[in-house]
Write a structure and sequence with these properties.
Blueprint lengths: L1 E5 L11 H13 L3 E5 L12 E4 L2 E4 L1 H12 L9 H28 L1 H6 L13 H19 L6 H19 L12 H14 L6 H7 L2 H14 L6
Helix pairs in contact: 1-2, 1-7, 3-5, 3-6, 3-7, 6-8, 7-9
The structure holds glutathione.
Glutathione binds next to α2.
């Protein structure tokens, strides 16, 4: 059976990472047998989660996991959509994964109260005397990555404006569809649901989460995806 290496549930989410939630949804969508297991940084080929262990072949990155499921197992994430629709899906997935992600993680890692009740929990297994030191070091790396990526240089208000721009684009394209591209589910739904869910997470004080909660079409979509792929999931 395939093993999906993830961080595990945190903060009332099925996983701490939106990329891991995306991969969990993709595996569930595929209908293939798999089990989620705790990732190990030592074994992660790219130093990140998720990665998939398929009978000893390791595939790192949620995108390449999706392609592997298609190529090696015949999974079909196209939802029957046209190339033009799928191109829209690709563009939105990149927007959420390579832009919105940094805005949403900035709130989680770099706002003090969110950090201490949030990512600080990741270091629970570290020896107690070293724990604050390790946590501060990793937080410093996140701050540096945000600065290098560029979004970390904006004010909080500017970052919120950018995040709302992304969410408005998602909401407009979603329109009255039950799923992102229309009435059938497709691969991009794994990304849209995972990133909305993570940003909406009530464990954190976040104006991005507040915005999502104030948009009924986004909340209805998220609820539909949660009911479909995580029925009975308790926050
Ligand atoms: N492009 C990757 C991104 C995965 C990713 O950034 N994972 C983060 C968690 S959200 C991670 O493992 N970070 C650990 C690190 O950078 O040390 C994917 O799609 O899987």
């Amino acid at each position: 059976m395939m093993k999906l290496n993830v961080f595990g549930p945190y903060f009332g989410l099925p996983d701490a990472s939106p990329f891991c939630i995306k991969a969990l949804i993709l595996l569930k969508m595929s209908g293939l047998d798999f089990e989620p297991v705790k990732m190990s940084f030592r074994k992660a080929p790219k130093g990140k989660a998720p990665y998939l262990d398929d009978g000893g072949t390791i595939i790192a990155d949620s995108h390449f996991i999706m392609r592997h499921l298609e190529r090696a197992h015949g999974a079909d994430f196209s939802g029957g959509y046209s190339a033009e629709d799928l191109a829209k899906g690709w563009a939105v997935a990149r927007m959420l994964e390579e832009h919105f992600y940094f805005l949403s993680m900035n709130v989680r890692w770099l706002e003090d109260d969110n950090f201490w009740k949030g990512p600080y929990q990741f270091f629970a297994d570290a020896p107690s005397i070293l724990r604050p030191l390790i946590a501060r070091m990793i937080r410093g790396k996140v701050r540096k990555a945000q600065h290098l990526q560029g979004l970390g240089r904006h004010s909080a208000g500017e970052r919120l404006e950018l995040a709302i721009g992304d969410l408005d684009a998602v909401e407009t394209m979603l329109g009255r569809n039950s799923h992102f591209l229309g009435d059938s589910v497709s691969g991009v739904d794994a990304t849209v649901a995972a990133f909305l869910w993570t940003a909406e997470c009530r464990h954190f004080r976040s104006p991005i989460g507040d915005h999502i909660r104030n948009r009924p079409p986004l909340m209805a979509y998220l609820q539909r995806m949660r009911d479909r792929y995580f029925p009975g999931f308790q926050e």
